[in-house]
Amino acid sequence: MDHYGIWGIIPPLLTIVLAFLTKDVIVSLFLGILSGALIVAGGNPAVALMNLTDLLAGSLADGWNIRIFLFCALLGGLVGMLSKTGAARSFGIWASSKLKTRTGSQFMTFIFGIIIFIDDYFNSMTVGTVMRPITDKTKVSRAKLAYILDSTAAPVCIIAPISSWVVTVMSIVRDAQGFEQLGMTEFEFFIHAIPYNLYALLALLLVLSVIFLKRDFGPMKQSELLAARGQLYNEDLYGPASGSVEEIAASRAKPIDMLFPIIVLIISAIIFFPVVTWLGAIDGETIKTMGEAMSSMSLGKAFNDTDSSMALWYAVIFTITATYIYYLARRLLTLKEGGQALQNGIQSMLPALIILTMAWSIGTIIKSPRADDGLGLGLYLSHVVSDGGFPIGILPAILFVLSAVISFATGTSWGTFGIMIPIAMPIVTGLVSGLGMDQAGLVNASMISISAVIGGAVFGDHASPISDTTILSSTGASCPHLEHVATQMPYAIFVAVCSFIGFTVGGFLLNAIAAWIAALIVFVLGLIVLPKLNFGKKEEH
């Protein structure tokens, strides 16, 4: 038998339970991996520990994994340099020089959040520091500022092709049992799955709706009414404001100093995606030069067939080097300051990097067959669901709810990715195989199911009171944390309900358009009805 049967469910189940109880995803993932190693080792703790250390080392010995690991680390280093120079503040001052209205200041916060897509932590802290004086001046509540910061952090990072979030998801999806059946690269999967990412896109759409249509509801409506009277946050109800971040002087920095590294990263990534494919095509026999490689395939094929980990690794190395030289030439950093900024930025990524390594490891022991010292859970689940006649139509909605609950309880989306994607993919492929669906059905079912996991995970990161980005958004906006949580929660739950309806309809029809029609109907009805409801105390006149 290629699997351990029901025993294989213990590692992910134990991880989920411990994550709920301890709120520590790293420890929960470690113990989940250890439980799997114990099963494989027949209960021998010494052998299990040796196998576990080999598993962790093996995760980083893989060429793809180590490049993604280093990409995320250096992305943190790039953010460290951006933070040190004060370039972001200079850009904000320039961009907001003509902002005079509440709508304008909120929209600029949204745009600024979209621009800084490479890292959610940097997004929340930097945009908050830059925009808070402007939103204060235009009497936008601190709660609204924190909400916009939070809604342009995780939801933006998960749909931006060049971010630590996306490469993490791609790496976990790539290693999941059954992915090879889709017949596409992990980058193609990500691009094609964007329309299915209902929660992230609807969260951004709701931000624009409350900015331009002024459809606030719930406690946020009360906070906005108080802000219009000059009270930017409700200390009486929610306590003092979260500590504001240090504002870095930007006497020498100019707006282009913030845009430069982002533009270089985007352009270099676009260039390296096809270049990696062309370099790989040179075999020294039939194709000997770069020119021959370029003429041997279309540009689109070169993009699709690339090794995205290699392309992104080259891009971030090139960007770090170019940015370091540029900042030295501009005298924004000294050699010592630049090195320290890189080090601080990389250190800030350590918790995420540990979670990423743990996610790879638990995914490996879960999916690997018994012959390869794994539990073969994917094989077992695919057999169970395909033989049991489980309805595939309800699967995306179930995955969305389960991922949302796990992520909300633990406050982390990366840990949820690592737990749920290795479970979801083999279930989808097993169901599709059992139903005899064609390749198009397999691709659509996989995309909407994995997108449901991603959407649920992003909801938890967006809404959970213990999420890092929720806390940092409160801090960046200098808003009482409880006020941010209370005012944002109805918005996040509303988007989650719309997404659930969309995933339910889209799951049965296996169609992104149907999912969007259903979700948007609920979305529009909610914007009409919810602002009319009285969620809190009536305002005194």
Automatic annotation (TrEMBL):
It is found in: Cell membrane. One of its GO terms (cellular component) is plasma membrane. InterPro entries: Na/H_Antiport_NhaC-like_C. It is a multi-pass membrane protein. Residues 156-507 form the Na+/H+ antiporter NhaC-like C-terminal domain. It comes from the Bacteria. The keyword Transmembrane applies. Pfam families: Na_H_antiporter. The chain crosses the membrane at residues 6-22, 29-52, 64-83, 189-213, 258-281, 311-329, 350-368, 388-410, 417-436, 442-460, 491-510, 516-535. Keywords: Cell membrane, Membrane, Transmembrane, Transmembrane helix. PANTHER family: NA+/H+ ANTIPORTER-RELATED, NA+_H+ ANTIPORTER NHAC-LIKE C-TERMINAL DOMAIN-CONTAINING PROTEIN. This is Na+/H+ antiporter NhaC family protein.
